[in-house]
Design goal:
By secondary structure, the protein is an alpha/beta fold. The chain has one domain: Rossmann fold, CATH 3.40.50.150. It is built from six helices and nine strands, in the order ββαβαβαβαβαβββα. The strands form two sheets. A seven-stranded mixed beta sheet has the order 5-4-3-6-7-9-8, sandwiched between helices. A two-stranded antiparallel sheet has the order 1-2. Strand 6, helix 5 and strand 7 form a beta-alpha-beta unit. The longest helix has 15 residues.
Length: about 200
């Protein structure tokens, strides 16, 4: 999530790479919904190119599901989408069916999902609503509930003016900016694997 309504045709955005490149996603008009900009998604998945094929991914605060669908398009073997808004969940499921993609879609609170799930992920997309200030709590829950595979990659999207407090075992790999949004890719360091 991360752009304004004026940045894309009303109600649609596109997948920028992989087998679904050019496919359109329907986008609901929902308060606070910020689909990640095409440029940021393209940059992120260029960074992830060596790691995405066969990866197990988690798209927390999924919104449109653009990040997770982009991962499926580029060869991720599993994607779980977590979203609380029923309308967004329904639209995400419809987009996945139309694109003939199989994935887990969970209508749930992100923190509750992390506490109750037993899955571990290679790549996590962490893009909570900016007004909710959930970066630190969600990052801690990923660690506390052991949802990250050894050496996992974590994508974090936040306002350009602030860098969230994240676990010390998350090492910044790359970062960029798109307008008022900072996007960054972290790697869970070897020190965290030994804990």
């Amino acid at each position: 999530m991360a752009r304004t309504r004026s940045d894309f045709a009303p109600g649609r955005l596109r997948i920028v790479g992989g087998s679904l490149r050019g496919s359109r996603l329907d986008v609901a008009d929902a308060p606070g919904l910020r689909p990640t900009p095409d440029r940021a998604r393209e940059t992120l998945f260029n960074w992830l190119t060596p790691m995405i094929a066969g990866a197990r991914c988690l798209d927390l605060f999924a919104g449109t599901g653009a990040l997770g669908i982009e991962a499926l398009s580029r060869g991720a073997v599993q994607v779980d989408f977590v979203e609380t808004d029923a309308r967004l969940v329904d639209l995400l499921r419809a987009n996945l069916v139309r694109l003939k993609q199989v994935a887990g879609v969970h209508r749930a609170d992100a923190l509750r999902y992390l506490a109750e799930s037993d899955a571990r992920y290679d790549i996590v997309f962490l893009d909570p609503p900016f007004t909710a200030d959930l970066w630190t709590a969600t990052a801690q829950a990923l660690e506390t509930h052991a949802r990250l595979a050894p050496g996992a990659w974590i994508y974090v999207e936040s306002p350009a003016t602030e860098i969230p407090a994240l676990p010390l075992v998350w090492s910044l790999h790359r970062e960029g900016r798109a307008g008022a949004v900072r996007f960054a890719l972290y790697r869970r360091t070897e020190a965290s694997v030994k804990l």
